[in-house]
Amino acid sequence: MRNRWKILLALLVACSIGAWYGNRKLKAVGHPGLGTFIGQWWNNWPKSFAMDPPVIALEVNEAGMAEMEAVVDSARVRGVIMPEGNDYVKAKFVVDGVEAKCKLRIKGKLGDHVKGEKWSFRVIAKGGGGFLGMKRFSLQHPGTRNYLCDWFYHRLSKGEGIVALRYGFCKVSLNGDDLGIYAYEEHFGPELLENNGRLKGPLVRFDPGLFWVHRLNGMSGRDFEEAYADYQAAAVDAFGGEDLIKDPEQLRYFQQALLLIDGFRRGELVAEQVFDIRKMAKRHAIIDLVGGHHSMDWSDVKFYYDPGAQRLEPVSYESFSAFPTKQLAGSGRFTGKTSAGAELHDALFNDAAFFAAYVHELENVSRKEYLDSTFAAIAGALDTASATLYAEFPYKELDRTIYYRNQDVIRRSLNVPKAVHAYLQGNAGGRTIVKLVAINSLPVEVVGLRAGTGALVPPVQRTIVPARRTGGLALSVVAEFPMDKAPDTLASKPVLVCRILGASHPMEVEVFPVALPEPGAMDELLVGQKPNIDRFDFLVVNDSARTIHIKPGKWKVTGTLVVPAGYQFHAIAPLSLEIGSGASIISYSPLLWSGSDEAHIHVFSGDSTSHGIHVIGAAGTSHLSMVDFQGLSRYELDQTTSADLSFHNCSANLSNCNFTGTGNTLVDMSVGSLTVVGCAFSGGSDQLELHYVRGAMRSCRFVGAMDDAVSVEGGVFGVKDTEVLGANGVGAKATSGARLSLESVDMRAVAQGIEVRAGASVTANGGSIDALQVGVTASKASMRDGPARAMLEKVRLTAKETAVVCGEGSSVVVEGKEVGGGATPAKAENE
Fold it and tell me: What pLDDT digit, counting tens, does each position of 760-781 carry?
């Protein structure tokens, strides 16, 4: 009996020691402790039983495995994955019983990607293969992206309209060996842009290759200054560079991106001239929310070049979160001036327009309701992702408290106890002068000066107090106010009204009566590109009404006319407007141009060498009525402009307008809404191109397109009571998930009537198709695309060669009966 008690006591002691040791180890890695760990396992692991996550079965031959094992062995010795020898090997992968060829390699830079059996892989599917719509993706241990944290980061980014990678969890096996739960992460390719509803354009980065040479030298004990490792020295390259070089249009877009980035690094361009500052502001506010500031390293940032707006957008890439935010991304950066060679984010945050947008987004994401509504909206998806992860990692929950804590830090950073120190300097020339000294890490904008019960007097010019970096000297600026004499500081107790640059709530600061000595004038702040409407004598500008009018008469545009945002750009008949050789009109305000039955507005280029008219990001809707556009450009194999008339990221109504010419495209709209009524299109290669547009068209006529009459990429568009005559290409084309409806549309002498591709659908009711070649084609471009569908009711369909061509998996339904089916093309009736 005594021995039994000794054994029992020994077991209790051993269990206690084990529990103490386990608890200590858990806390050493930031976990709350053994008790919480056991509770998580008990509650979370059973949730995974109901999950059936996607499974990727990788198959690599013996030679390929030997190559990858050599890379892994070398990385484990060195602590880093060397690019030399880490080549792609041939492989296959099977998803849901479908086998596809691919190539893969070991992915990553540091040794965490090759720990244990969970190696990280970069996979590129060949041919039409893919996984969840992705042809380029990574498979990696969920811990390399901190489990659910990057999943949440990408959801936040996508919800704010930022280009975001697809990221989630799946099961992976390698040559039959179960590797367990992996995180999949989309890589950079055209499908990323398609999934985010963007025009095709380059995805670019600062090449980190030389930077990693420097890092490897340091890790090997050879730490010394190497100029080639700097951001300022990094080359800018594009993902999919080999394909880009083969595409003249994309190559030109890449060169445009290079020009902007180079101008930004040299200090010749400010942020709002190079980037989509609203989306950039959202990205950095989200980084503050998730505590992912490590992702701001220049070697990790990625961009998409929007060819329509000619601006760079951020791409949501690894967030390195979630961690407590100690300092905001923009803290201490705004100096009020930019300089050549400035660090990437110092130059970015020194753009006043960007910083104001950034603070506005900080106010948004720091509201408790923002996170509450976000978690409510993604509750189902989060439960699914969590349960999938819990099959192997039941202790890796998404800690929501970090995000709410970071919200509190953001709010406190914006609601400073005092904005600036203000000193009354006196009065000179009818202006009261106040010196302002920076004390906060965020810049402060002056609203006005108030003395006693008097009115608020705004400053003579916009005044921004720069940020003060922690531990740095306080900078000062001078603000001038139009006041005949300086206020009596003792009697009226003047206050300065100001706000954190971009903040919605003003603050009041008492002005000290003691003047400070003048250190010298401050350099003027750059406020971005100025409009040039004052250069054109035929424009009448009313700043109080915020209108710009073209005088009636005959005028010629020479050079580029840039119309700023915030106006309404009017024109009425009689008006003949010639756009000279190489000239163009770029408007950031809506066009309100109206002719009459007796006299249409006439817009033309005498020799078809203009660069057209382009409306970009205009607030409000453009209305064009009875306007004739004639011969604005010529057809070019390497197209230099989007169209004779284009709209990007805005809305427009076109009525009773005529479009004629020989250019590549007569009218183009991307990312917006459009209504077209009673318009005629004649000539041109493509006549109407729409990209991710919602809208409708009726009572229009398309004649003599050298290629396609109507092309719709993405979006939803309806066409009614319209004629298409003599198109050498397609009468109506829908691609990339577009939804196109045709009602009473008559097509005659077109090479092909309807073409549907890449997950798009077309419904046609009434009307006719008289095709010289094929009546209707429906097909998907590759395995990753959804089926294409066409449905025809009461449509008279005739074709000289083939009535219907239907690819495998797609469908064409005529009068309720499916035809084609991807087997033998249906024959047309020959007239």
Answer: 999 999 999 999 999 999 987 6
E strand map for 543-685: 547-550, 553-557, 560-563, 568-572, 575-579, 584-587, 591-594, 601-604, 613-616, 621-625, 627-634, 645-648, 651-655, 658-662, 665-677, 680-683
Beta-bridge partners for 104: 89, 123
Contacting residues for 32 by C-beta, under 8 A, at least 6 apart: 26
Q: Where are the alpha helices (DSSP H) in 173-229?
A: 190-195, 209-219
Both tokens assigned to 685: 């290669």
d(CA 30, CA 702): 67
Alpha-carbon distance of 794 to 444, in angstroms, equals 66
Q: Six-digit token pair at 469?
A: 């970096």
Asked if 715 and 693 count as a contact pair (C-beta separation under 8 A), the reply is: yes
Check if the beta carbon of residue 797 is closer than 8 Å to that of residue 777.
no
Task: Please name every residue paired with 747 in a beta bridge, in sequence order, or none if there are none.
Answer: 724, 769
Q: What is the DSSP string of 762-782?
A: EEEEEEEEEEEEEEEEEE-SS
Task: Select from 226, 212, 231, 208 the least CA-distant residue to 78.
Answer: 212
In this structure, what DSSP letter does residue 232 have?
G
- Residue spans of alpha helices (H) in 220-276: 241-246, 248-265, 271-274
Buried b (16+ CB within 10 A) or exposed e, 248-284: eebbebbebbbebbeebbebebbbbbbbbbbbbbbbb
Task: Count Cβ neighbours within 10 Å for each residue of 514-533 and write b for 16 or more, e otherwise.
Answer: eeeeeeeebeebbeeeebeb
Please name every residue paired with 236 in a beta bridge, in sequence order, or none if there are none: 206
Beta bridge partners of 598: none
Q: Give the other-Cβ count within 10 Å of 491's Cβ.
A: 9
- Give the pLDDT band of residue 822 (cuts 50, 70, 90): very low
Q: Is 659 exposed, middle or buried (0-12, 13-18, 19+ CB in 10 A)?
A: buried
Residue 30 confidence (pLDDT): 46
Give the Cα separation of 394 and 381 in Å (integer): 17
The residues near 225 (Cβ < 8 Å, ≥ 6 apart) are none
| Contact predicate 117/181, CB 8 Å | no
825: number of Cβ within 10 Å: 17
Average pLDDT over residues 312-329: 92
Whole-structure pTM value:
0.80
Cα–Cα distance, 265 to 341 (Å, whole number) = 6
* Per-residue pLDDT reduced to its tens digit, 127-185: 777 888 899 999 999 999 999 999 999 999 999 999 999 999 999 999 999 999 999 99
d(CA 99, CA 130): 10
Q: What is the pLDDT of residues 170-223, one digit of tens each?
A: 999 999 999 999 999 999 999 999 999 999 999 999 887 777 666 666 666 666
Please, are residues 563 and 590 in contact by the beta-carbon 8 Å criterion?
no
Compute, in degrees rounded to 10, the torsion defined by CA atoms 480, 484, 489, 492.
Answer: -120
pLDDT of 641: 76
Burial class (CB in 10 A: 0-12, 13-18, 19+), 469: middle
User: How does residue 229 score in pLDDT terms, banded at 50, 70 and 90?
Assistant: confident
List, in sequence order, every residue forming a beta bridge with 765; answer none if it has no partner.
Answer: 743, 793
Query: What mean pLDDT value characterizes the chain?
Result: 87
What gap in Å lies between CA 582 and CA 611, rounded to an integer? 6
Closest CA to 410 of 445, 361, 372: 361
DSSP three-state, residue 189: coil
| Number of residues that make up the chain | 831
Query: Which of 594, 651, 647 lies closest to 619 in space, CA to CA?
Result: 651
Helices (H) and strands (E) in the chain, counts: 15, 48
For residue 110, the SS3 value is: strand
Using the 8-state DSSP alphabet, how is residue 328 labeled? -
And the tokens for 521?
């004038």
pLDDT tens string 476-522: 899 999 988 877 765 678 999 999 999 999 999 999 887 775 544 33
